[in-house]
Structures are given as C-alpha cells and as structure tokens.
Automatic annotation (TrEMBL):
This is diguanylate cyclase. Residues 78-125 form the HAMP domain. Residues 168-215 form the GGDEF domain. It catalyses: 2 GTP = 3',3'-c-di-GMP + 2 diphosphate. One of its GO terms (cellular component) is plasma membrane. It comes from Flexistipes sinusarabici (strain ATCC 49648 / DSM 4947 / MAS 10). Its EC number is 2.7.7.65. GO terms for biological process: cell adhesion involved in single-species biofilm formation; negative regulation of bacterial-type flagellum-dependent cell motility; signal transduction. It is an enzyme of class 2 (transferase).
C-alpha cells in the first residue's frame, strides 16, 4: 500500500463518512512493513467512527450512549451527554414545580432556558394570586369584607360535624339591626352601607379568634 492508497482511503472516508471506515480494520489490513501504520490508521478512524455514532445518537435525542473515556474524539460527546442528562433532570424538577434550578453550562441555551424558568415561576405565582383573589371574592361579602353566606354555610357544616364527633357544644348567634330601613330612608343607602360596615368592624374587633363572623 503506497501513499496514493492512503490518500484514497482517507479521501474516501472524508467524502462518504463513517460507512467508508468499515473495510479499514486491524484484521483485514496486511501490507507488509506498513502493517503497523495501517493498524494505527484503522484504530484512529475507528475512534472517529465511534465518536461520530455517539454524536449522531445525541443529535437524535438518545442520551444512552456508551463511549470509551479513552476515545479522544468522543470526549466532547461524553461531556454533552453528561450536561444533557443533568438538564433532563433539571427539567423534570421544574415540571414538578421547583423553579430554583438554573442552567449555566450550555451557553446561549442556558440563558433562554433560565428565562423560560423565570417566566413559568412568575406565571405560577400570578396564577396562585388569581386563585386567592377569586376565592376571596367567592367567600367574602363585598360590602363589609367579612365572610358571606356561602362561607358561613361551609364553616357551619364543618363545626356541626366536629361538635357531633367530639360530643361538644356549639353556639350560634344571629342578630340584625332594628329599624335599619329607616336609616336608608332617612339618610340614604350610602349611609346605610357605612352603618353596616361600621357594625361589622365593631363585631370583628370584639369576638374571639376561634369565633366566626359572617353576613
């Protein structure tokens, strides 16, 4: 095998890719005094082929590659595999609601990934706040800001069940404002609303912490 043959083999390999390496292996090469060189060339091309196959699998989303640590050409692929495995784990944590993970090892992708995480975190916080606001509106009297009838029914049902379970007593007090209609008729509905709000404040400030007050 002369230099032209080597040139042809290498050129063919570069043009056709790893498939051209298949006929270059230690078992099939036998060229006399150049035999060791041929074997070394075959080993080199084989390492390149393995590195190519590892990189190809990674490009297809397959993270289960097995490249030798002694393969110099496969070292970047091994490093990328490690980073992508860690990134996959981080993505799983984020999907479970842990938004404290940051990526710093993938250049521009890291910045985009971190921005996405921050955006998800902000949207979840906004969603929780919206749920709290809607829940408050659904259970609060809009005028007096105390619990409404719906919340009262919920709490009363719970307290009655608890009293029955533990064989404890339960106190329920109901009251209204005598002649409240006269306040509205005489001073107007705005003053009537102010009277209700002031009454609610007085009651709220004079009941115990375990007591529940609703309209």
């Amino acid at each position: 095998m002369n230099i032209e043959d080597f040139h042809k083999i290498i050129k063919n390999a570069l043009n056709k890719g790893p498939s051209a390496y298949d006929f270059i292996n230690k078992e099939s090469i036998n060229c006399g005094e150049k035999n060791q060189f041929c074997k070394d060339l075959a080993a080199l091309l084989n390492q390149i082929k393995v590195a190519y196959e590892c990189t190809k699998k990674l490009s297809e989303g397959n993270l289960n590659i097995n490249c030798s640590k002694t393969n110099f050409f496969a070292m970047p692929a091994k490093n990328l595999q490690s980073n992508l495995n860690h990134l996959t784990w981080q993505a799983q944590q984020i999907s479970d609601g842990d938004y404290n993970h940051k990526v710093s090892f993938l250049g521009d992708f890291s910045e985009a990934f971190n921005k996405m995480t921050e955006s998800l975190k902000e949207k979840e916080a906004l969603g929780k706040k919206l749920v709290e606001v809607l829940e408050e509106k659904a259970t609060t009297d809009s005028l007096t800001k105390i619990a409404n009838r719906s919340k009262f029914n919920e709490i009363l049902t719970y307290e009655m069940q608890r009293a029955e379970r533990y064989q404890n007593g339960l106190s329920l007090i109901m009251f209204d404002i005598d002649h409240f209609k006269k306040i509205n008729d005489t001073y107007g509905h705005i003053k009537g609303d102010e009277t209700l709000k002031r009454l609610a404040e007085i009651v709220e400030n004079n009941i115990r912490k375990p007591d529940f007050f609703a309209r």
